[in-house]
Amino acid sequence: MNLRANWRKLINVVMLGLSGMCTLLAVSLLLFILGYLVWQGGTAINWAFFTELPKPVGEPGGGMANAIVGSAKLLLLAALIGIPVGLLGGIYLAEFGGRTWSFLLRYATDLLNGTPSIVIGLLAYGILVMPMRQFSTLAGGFALGVIMIPTALRTAEEFLQSVPRPLREAAMALGASRWKTIATVVVPAALPGIVTGMLLGLARIAGETAPLLFTAFSNRFWSPGWIQPTASLPVMIYTYAIAPYEDWHRQAWAAGLVLLALILIVNVGTRILLSRRTPWERL
Amino acid sequence: MAMSNKASERGIISQRAHFWFQRLHEGDAVAHLVTLIVASTVLVVTGLLVYELWIDSALSRQKFGWKFFFTSTWDPVFESFGAWPFIFGTLVTSALGLLLAVPVGLGAAIFLAEMAPPKVSSALAFVIDLLAAVPSVIYGLLGIFILVPWLRTSAEPFLNTHFGFLPLFQGPAYGVGFLAGGVILAIMILPYIISVSREVLLAVPPEQREAALAVGSTHWEATWEVVLPYARTGIFGSIFLALARALGETMAVTMVIGNTPQVSSSLFAPGYTIAAAIANEFTEATGNVHLAALMELGLVLFVVTFILNGLGRLLILATAQQGTARE
User: Fold this and answer.
1) B291-327: b or e for each residue (b if 16 or more CB lie within 10 Å)?
2) A120 in contact with B at a CB cutoff of 8 Å?
3) Which of B100-109, B151-160, B177-186 has the lowest mean pLDDT?
4) Which end of chain A is more exposed for a tag (fewer CB within 10 A), N or C?
5) Which band of pLDDT confidence, cut at 50, 70 and 90, is reported for residue B327?
6) What is the mean pLDDT of residues A81-109?
7) Touching check for A277 and chain B: CB below 8 Å?
8) Which of B7-16, B78-87, B108-117, B159-168 is least confident?
């Protein structure tokens, strides 16, 4: 009997210890990725990386200035699609939606969220690249915008719903219409959360590569305007990493470090901002 | 005369605009309609996606029919396309990814939900969420320069000498191949499995644990025999979601799988996946049939992930509402 009890205790300790090891493994994976990128990218990064165009193959040096600007333009377009749709869609789901239609929309949003990004790229190719007969910033931005919608919409909805009922009731008791309540009370109260959601959505699409391969394509030079192919950081990382040149590999690490740093800063920063008290808790 | 006419017209228009604006400002009905229309773009986009994929793959669907899925020739010159090697590669790498990631992910989720104090748990969960925020192309970068050389020089020779009797571990060690694809997928889906499973486990009512502990079970027994069965369906849901991610994952896999359309019994051999084929060949597709064949691959990917996601979400919803332990 005692033997059995000891056995059970042993199993208990061993299995719980193993589960702790699993967590340790996952967490150390992130530390390893970060450390390795900082090490490899840190030695490769320099001022020219941010200010110069890529040099032709064989010439050392050069940078990714065009890719950085390209990524910024793509993100701007994506934000122009993702933020309004996310915000208004979130308002609908949180404030107006009936039971069935909301459920359907939520489900569709989740499914769109799970759709591989490369498939969304095919959509952008079909409706923008094919008719225009050319790769463009526009098509890339559209693809990224569509990918952003689900994240933006669901987080906006979540934060709007977390605004306490009494706040709405107080506004309505003062005679405000429903829309006025939403626009002047509910949305401002949920704003920090909504901004966070949008930033996280942007951080997510900033690293998307697959849909850009055949929408924004790539470009060794500056891409003026919106209807020409453009370089972008993730695509540059990809092409430089699979190329056989040592110098390009170094630049790929540098680009990887810049991209990951941006994404992690947004993730950690929004987390810190949100962990402060939300407005209605301060009341 | 004309001037004043115009002015009054403008007056009417601005009055109308003002009226409309007021309706928008105060009219709940208008706000309702506008937000409804915007929210519905999600459905429109999904519909458009299905339409595009269906129309643009028509050429390939008509020419190859169901044969498309079972034949192995992929020949752009003679415009003969069969997707079996891609489907095979996708299935093998995803299965391998799940095989490696599910035990570790579940273990970590158990630790975070059942053992760690709430504050530690949420801090660690945040770190793991950061792992999910790392872009695919960066996993690919690390894959090319760390994982592949390591597999080629250490892991694959080791597996070959010790488990070489299995056909899985035979053949030359290339580094790039199904094994590399599977390992990188495992790393990438790990955070999804952990965070969804953790939430499912946290949703199990504490009474369940307390009852088990009260009749004398150890902490582990309470977890293994009570909490896990209760949350079983939701955990399956999280695995479905992870599988859907793995199937559609593109860049990291493209960078380490070797991009050779072949079916092989060895995990060391280079292969190809559906998503990698689309990524690599789309811009270079020459003929319309080639393009249509790639679109059909996209359609397959969409339909499969759609079904997996749908099922996964339903399972998680079901668990959230009530447990799934047998009576």
Assistant:
1) bbbbbbbbbbbbebbbebbbbbbebbeebeeebebee
2) yes
3) B151-160
4) N
5) very low
6) 90
7) no
8) B7-16
Do B303 and B46 contact (CB within 8 A), yes or no?
Answer: no
Query: How far, CA to CA in Å, does A42 sit from each of A66, A236, A246, B16?
Result: 20, 17, 16, 61
Residue B21 has pLDDT above 70, yes or no: no
Partner residue facing B142 (CB), from A33, A95, A263: A33
Residues in chain B with CB shorter than 8 Å from the CB of A197 are none
More confidently predicted of B242 and B28 = B242
Contact B309 A110 (CB under 8 A): yes
Average pLDDT value for chain A: 90
- pLDDT computed for residue B31 by the predictor: 83
Owner of token pair 């009570």: B226
Distance CA B124, CA B112 (A): 8
| Cα within 13 Å of Cα(B193), Cβ side | 29
Contacts of A127 (CB under 8 A, 6+ apart): B48, B52
Q: Which fold has domain B66-321?
A: MetI-like fold (1.10.3720)
**Residue A278: predicted pLDDT:** 52
Which of the residues B128, B137, B297 would you substitute to probe the A interface, choosing the one with the greatest number of A C-beta atoms within 10 Å? B137
pLDDT for residue B23 is more than 90: no
Q: Return the DSSP state at A55.
A: P
Contact flag B27-A177 (C-beta cutoff 8 Å): yes
Just give the CATH number of A49-282: 1.10.3720.10
Q: Which two tokens stand for residue B113?
A: 């939900």
**Minimum distance, in Å, between the CA of residue B170 and any CA atom of chain A:** 26
Give residues 41 to 70 of A whose Cβ lies within 8 Å of B: none
pLDDT of residue B210: 92
List of chain B residues whose C-beta atoms are within 8 Å of the C-beta of residue A208: 135-136
Residue in A110, A118, A217, A274 to test binding to B, most B beta-carbons within 10 Å: A118
Q: Which pLDDT value is given to residue B326?
A: 43
Q: Is the pLDDT of residue B253 over 90?
A: yes
Name the residue type at position B238. Answer: S
A177 with B34: Cβ contact below 8 A: no
* pLDDT score recorded for residue A282: 44
Q: Which of A68, A205, A70 is nearest to A146 (CA)?
A: A205
Chain A residues in contact with B115 (beta carbon < 8 A): 16, 19-20
